[in-house]
Amino acid sequence: MKMPLRILGSCRIDENKIFVNQRFVFGQSTANFQQFAEAAYKNQRLDYPRFYKMNNLSKLGFLAAEYLLSNFVEPPLGQTSGELTGIILANHYSSLDTDLKHQHFIQQGIASPAVFVYTLPNILIGELCIRHSIKGENTFFVAAEYDIPGQTTYVTQLFRDQLITHCFVGWVEYTAAGYQAFLALVGPSADTMLPAYIPTSINLLFHQSHGRA
């Protein structure tokens, strides 16, 4: 790697608030997730009907990517081929929210292909790949907690092996009890104002206290 790996940008979504690079950019105080997600989508003035067919986990990750990428003055991936952009994500509960809905339909004797198709967490990655023409290395890990050192080591090795030139990394979790998305874009950069892609930097961004909007 000619230039050090840095965190080019990040987005965090929780409690009906969206922060990009630690700055509050959108929120609703009284909305449930469905209302919040639709409002956040409309706030970006998007025209992507597929969004409305997604499950909640995919909508959450989709919005994190949209807000993250919209913050760049120039497209952050430049002329990079989709084959060299990766996505490495993780969560704890996999696609449990959709799994429970699928189980409910089965118990009612109803088959719902539209629900069944989202009973894997990596469908979220698929949605991001479709949206942003990404064809590179991708993996969705399910673990008890966000293994930041492990994910950082894995992604760094992908760069060293020259399998990717940019990578989306993070943690995207949705259950009926709550949700949280943290998404960062990693790539080589000589800009010393950007944080280095190391576990300490990701940990600070992931666990930071945003305070009041």
List the helices and strands and how they pair.
Elements: E1 5-14, E2 17-20, E3 23-27, H1 33-43, H2 56-70, E4 85-91, H3 96-107, H4 113-116, H5 122-132, E5 138-142, H6 148-160, E6 166-175, E7 178-188, H7 199-207
Parallel strand pairs: 4-5, 4-6
Antiparallel strand pairs: 1-2, 1-7, 2-3, 6-7
Helix pairs in contact: 1-2, 2-5
Key phrases:
213 residues, alpha/beta, Peroxisomal Thiolase, Chain A, domain 1, seven-stranded mixed β-sheet, 7 strands, 24% strand, globular, disordered C terminus
Q: How would you explain this protein's 3D organization?
A:
By secondary structure, the protein is an alpha/beta fold. The chain has a single domain, classed as 3-Layer(aba) Sandwich (Peroxisomal Thiolase, Chain A, domain 1), CATH 3.40.47.10. About 35% of the residues lie in helices and about 25% in strands. The protein is built from seven helices and seven strands. The longest helix is centred in the first third of the chain and has 15 residues, at about 55-70. It is globular and about 55 Å long. The relative contact order is 0.24.
